[in-house]
Amino acid sequence: MMSAATIKEAMPRAETARLAVSVRDLDIRFGDRGNEVSALTNVSVDIPEGSFVTMLGPSGCGKSTLLRCIADLVHISNGSVSVFGRPPRQAREGRDFAFVFQEATLLPWRSVIDNVRLPLEVGKHDKSSYADPMELLALVGLKGRENALPHELSGGMRQRVAIARALVTKPRILLMDEPFGALDEITRDKLNEELLRIWRETGTTIIFVTHSIPEAAFLGQHVLMLQAHPGRVKEFMKLDFPYPRALSMRDTVDFVRVTAHLRALLEECI
Ligand SMILES: Nc1ncnc2c1ncn2[C@@H]1O[C@H](COP(=O)(O)OP(=O)(O)OP(=O)(O)O)[C@@H](O)[C@H]1O
Ligand SMILES: [Mg+2]
Fold first, then answer.
1. Pocket of ligand 1 (CB under 6 A)
2. Cβ distance 188 to 215 under 8 Å?
3. Ligand 1: which atom is nearest the Cα of residue 31?
4. Are residue 77 and residue 207 in the same domain, yes or no?
5. Overall domain count for the chain
6. N or C: which end of the chain has fewer CB within 10 A?
7. Is the pLDDT of residue 1 over 90?
8. Residue closest to 105 by CA, chosen among 182, 187, 201
9. Which atom of ligand 1 is nearest to the CA of 178?
10. To test the ligand 1 pocket, which listed residue (63, 70, 227, 270) has its Cβ within 8 A of the most ligand atoms?
């Protein structure tokens, strides 16, 4: 049995594994001088290659901002972010990462398969380096629906298409910002299990933002908790639940203990 004491508190700096993302002393400020909002301050964290990191924290603590920094969508005020040892801009140009948002943002006039192919039509590609869109649709459980239009799908199916689309360029990192936040609980559970399977099959590093404590604990090898005002790291915690994980794991004493611990931490973050 895993006790609260065996929840390993990992050092924010990983020692041996190759790093997918390394954030050092990061400050992000928005707005003009004299009217600045500090979104993140002094954030340092290392994310090992191939890991699954979930991110929790109160609204406005900077979770999306941190993802956006990694994706080169936000100007860094101070400190550094490196993605596989290079600046985010180079990582973006090298298509190291892909983003999945809360809304699937599919093009409504394009079929499922054509939505998945879309990233391959934008920018330069070495054909041998991308995944087969049909295989990806099978991977996300949408075999046979490739010719459907987005409005013919449920919200959960649309999100699966978005995941397939994100994987088509074989990104080394998948950045997911509350991807299942708008779904009903049963669909979300199912997609949680499927995402773990996809993660294990593809070896992609995943950084996944959520407001759900059980979701963060069920999916993550590590939970990165941020606190607000200003946004900073509260804790980077390793979870020792073995994979493959089944949803029934959430009923175990160990899991309940972990989620209670996370809840108590989260209450301190607001
Ligand atoms: N482009 C921007 N311009 C100005 N302020 C911004 C910008 N983006 C984010 N902020 C501010 O930075 C802070 C962090 O925002 P962020 O969206 O990263 O929070 P979050 O943790 O993702 O919140 P939520 O859980 O509500 O999605 C907030 O105070 C927000 O208002
Ligand atoms: Mg956000």
1. 30-31, 37, 39, 57, 59-65, 231
2. yes
3. 4
4. yes
5. 2
6. N
7. no
8. 182
9. 27
10. 63
